[in-house]
Specification:
It is built from nine helices and twelve strands. The protein is an alpha/beta fold. The protein has a five-stranded parallel sheet with strand order 3-2-6-1-7, with helices on both faces.
Length: about 250
């Protein structure tokens, strides 16, 4: 019996034209496509006739299929000799559980390959003209997930270290913002640190909110900000403020 192969493909930060060339070619050629939430429909529409497409994404507070079931599907289709693309938002290894699926495949002897993608943690700030690093401002950044906040069992989030990283990027953390903000401030981050929330970052309805770290919780409540949103904390936000000021039609040319 011929065993199939699985490709763990990163779809990029949320816009169809930002997937890798290799990732798109695999979608167009695969027999089975297992795809996550927030994958652009333009990508899932690229499959060939007869391709079996299964939505296995996770919504906040609701999993369409538990991870064990996704693992089982990958193995089952591989045993049928299929060419399978496991399409994940962003990059497979950044909070995408790609590492877990890779280990499951390896232990079962199923061939696999990883195709990286642009993570939304970098892509969305870039779309909003926020550099996550900037000379003289930020020489490093930390990416954390709000899903690990608030004492989640097994959480290894080192807030003491993260509080002192120049740029902090929080994914999937709108509901946990009060906790995140508290952790950072209690560990020494200045409440006046510039911050931003970018909502629906790669869509035509993108919204950008500029504030300070201490204002983030009230901002999210007042504006009723929902997922998907990314929070960026650090002095790099001032680079965006400078750019917005320079681009303003009210600024007179010197």
């Amino acid at each position: 019996m011929t065993v199939g192969k699985v490709w763990l493909v990163g779809a990029g930060p949320g816009r169809a034209d930002l997937i890798s060339v290799k990732g798109l070619r695999l979608i167009q050629a695969c027999d089975v496509l297992l795809y996550d939430r927030l994958i652009p429909c333009e990508l899932t529409d690229e499959t060939k006739p007869g391709c079996e497409k299964l939505f296995v994404g996770k919504k906040p507070g609701a999993h369409i299929k538990p991870q064990d079931e996704i693992n089982r599907l990958l193995l089952t289709y591989a045993q049928q000799g299929k060419m399978i693309v496991r399409l994940k938002g962003g990059d497979p290894f950044l909070f995408g559980r790609g590492g877990e699926e890779m280990l499951v495949l390896a232990e079962a002897g199923v061939p696999f390959e990883v195709v990286p993608g642009i993570t939304s943690a970098i892509g969305v700030p870039a779309e909003a003209n926020i550099p996550v690093t900037h000379k003289g401002v930020s020489t490093g950044f930390a990416i954390v997930t709000g899903h690990e906040a608030d004492g989640k069992p097994g959480s290894t989030t080192d807030w003491d270290s993260i509080a002192h990283v120049p740029t902090v990027i929080v994914l999937m953390g709108v509901k946990k913002l009060p906790y995140v903000v508290t952790q950072l401030i209690e560990r020494g981050r200045d409440p006046s640190t510039p911050a931003a929330i970018v909502s629906n970052g790669m869509s035509t309805i993108r919204k950008e909110y500029l504030a300070t770290l201490g204002e983030l919780t009230q901002l999210a409540t007042t504006e009723s900000i929902q997922s998907p949103s990314i929070t960026i904390i650090g002095d790099v936000i001032d680079v965006k403020r400078q750019l917005d000021l320079a681009a303003s039609p009210n600024v007179l040319a010197s």
